[in-house]
Structures are given as structure tokens and as C-alpha cells.
Amino acid sequence: MSAPSLTTTKADSPHPPPPREAGPVPAGARFAKSLRRNLTAHGFLIGAVLCFGFFSWYPMVREFLLAFQRTENGRTTWVGLDNLRTVVNDPAFWQAWSNTALFTALALVLGFAVPFLVAIVINEFHHGQGYLRLLVYLPVMLPPVASVLLFKYLYDPGYGLLNELFTSSGLPAQQWLQDPDISMLAVVIASTWMNMGGATLIYLAALQSIPGELYEAAELDGAGLLRKIWHVTVPQTRLILSLMALMQVIATMQVFVEPFLLTGGAGPEGSTTTVVYLIYQYAFNFNNYGAAAALGLLLLVLLAGFSAVYVKLSRAEDE
């Protein structure tokens, strides 16, 4: 009987040899395969870039060019800084900036503080927070025109609800939108009610992320409600408060809808003329698109500075 062979054939081998490696795939084929695999994503991305470029980048570039041009009888000429000089020498220029600064300051007092206080109150409720959040956010869901018309009815000097409340309480009726001393305050109150919902929800989310142990420790130290807010709530939400304050400034510097619909834009004695409304006047009332673009460019530079600060604080929050 012959001894078994120490070698086996290729067919009898329990471990077949590995398959031969294919040659390198051409770069064009790899790109085509990747493109087919991500065709839908690329389509949405290209569409978004085109829309953003057409509706955002192109108007900004066009505004920059118009700020140094003048169009008369269909002919466009370069005028350098003449449009900027025209805007700065306009008496309404400084009044518009003053009114815009006043609106921003009042909006920081009301539109920045009120949502934070409302968020603190809602956070104290352990039941029904969902309904309260919906109630606070409801004005944001209303069309701005409907909200402004509602306040125009409330401010009416003849049959407005606010004057009815004033007279029933023994206070004199007010000319809310006709008095240059209080017309801007009336606009700020309406704007605060219309836009406070989003800020309130952001503050509420920040408050709910604060550890409860901090409040318990403050209570053990004998801190009351105001001291807990000042020593626990404010420090824990300081970065969110800073970011929201910058966003409030950026948004209020561009106010247009509320004064335009409530007081016709300029208001009594020009008391509600804002920078954006002055841009609107240059473009659509005076047909001076160069001056409108120059004023818009000034506003763009100012808001870019605030935006740079906002981006820096956002990065600090992420870190």
C-alpha cells in the first residue's frame, strides 16, 4: 500500500487562491460613479447655490456698483463718491440714523428684556408649558400686515382699545401714532409683540439646560427669586444673551414694515423715518437708485461689523 502523498492538487486544496486583483479604475469612471450615486444631492445643492447667488449675491454686487453710478435717460455713468455726498448732505440722513438708533435702543429695552422675563415665567410652570409656548409664538405665525393693522386699531385715537383703557382708568387719551414724542415707542411696542415669540423659545431652551442643583444651592444659601436670577440664571445664559442682543441690533437696524404701515413711514415730523425707509424713498419716490444704493452700502458695512462680532461669539460658544 503506497504512502499518502504530502502534496494536494489545486482542486483538492481547502483554501482556494485569492482572486486576481483588478487593475486600477480610471479616475473618470470613479467620478462618474460617484456623480450617479449623489445625483439627487448634487441637484439640490446646485439649485440652492443658484438661488442664493441670484437672489443674494447678485443684488449685493449690483448694489455695490450702483452706489458709484448714476443713471439718467437710460445712460449709466460712473460718479465716484457723488452719491455718498448726496446722501450725507441730506438733512433726513441724520434724522433717519437718529430714529433708527432710538428704535434699536428701545427695542433692546423691550424686545430684548421682555422675552427673557417671559421665558423665566414660563419655565416656572411645570404643567402646560406646551400651550404657553404656542401662545407666545402665535404672533410670529400671524402675517405681519395683519398684526400691524391690529395695533393700528388699538392705537386709534377715537375708538382704540388703549385709549378706552386709559380713559376708564382716569388717564388722558394719547395720540399714539400722531404725537412725535411717543410714536416711535408705539412702533416698538407693536414690533416687540410681533417678534418676541422666537426669542422667548430660545431663552426657554437655554433656561431648561441649567442644572437644577445650582438653584438648590442658591436656595440653601438663602437666595430669593431676584438673586437666583441675577447670580444663577444670567451667568448661565450670558453667551446666549449676548448673541441674542447682537441679533436684535442687526434686525432692528433694518426695521421697515412696522413704521411704514403704522405711520406711513415718515411719521409725524419725521419721527419714525428709519434708514431703510429713507432707502425706499430714494429708490421709489425720488428715482435716485444711486443714492439708495449708497445709503444701503453704508448700512451693509455697519451690519457687517455687527455680524462679525456675532460670528466670533458663535465660535466661542461652539468651543
Beta strand count: 2
The gyration radius over C-alpha positions equals 31 Å
Strand content: under 5%
Strand order of the largest sheet: 1-2
Which parts are unreliable, with pLDDT below 50 for 5 consecutive residues or more?
Answer: 1-13
Number of helices: 14
Calculate the terminal CA-CA distance, rounded to whole Å. Answer: 80 Å
Describe this entry's structure for a reader.
There is one protein chain. The protein is globular. It is built from 14 helices and two strands, in the order H-H-E-E-H-H-H-H-H-H-H-H-H-H-H-H. It has a two-stranded antiparallel sheet with strand order 1-2. With 319 residues, it is an all-alpha fold.
Key phrases:
single chain, 319 residues, mainly alpha, two-stranded antiparallel sheet, 14 helices, globular
Concise overview:
By secondary structure, the chain is mostly helical. 69% of the residues lie in helices and 3% in strands.
Itemize the secondary structure elements and their pairings:
Layout lengths: L26 H11 L1 H28 L2 E4 L2 E4 L3 H7 L2 H33 L5 H13 L2 H11 L6 H8 L14 H26 L3 H9 L4 H12 L1 H15 L4 H7 L11 H11 L3 H30 L1
Antiparallel strand pairs: 1-2
Helix pairs in contact: 2-14, 3-14, 4-8, 4-11, 5-8, 6-12, 8-12, 9-10, 11-14, 13-14
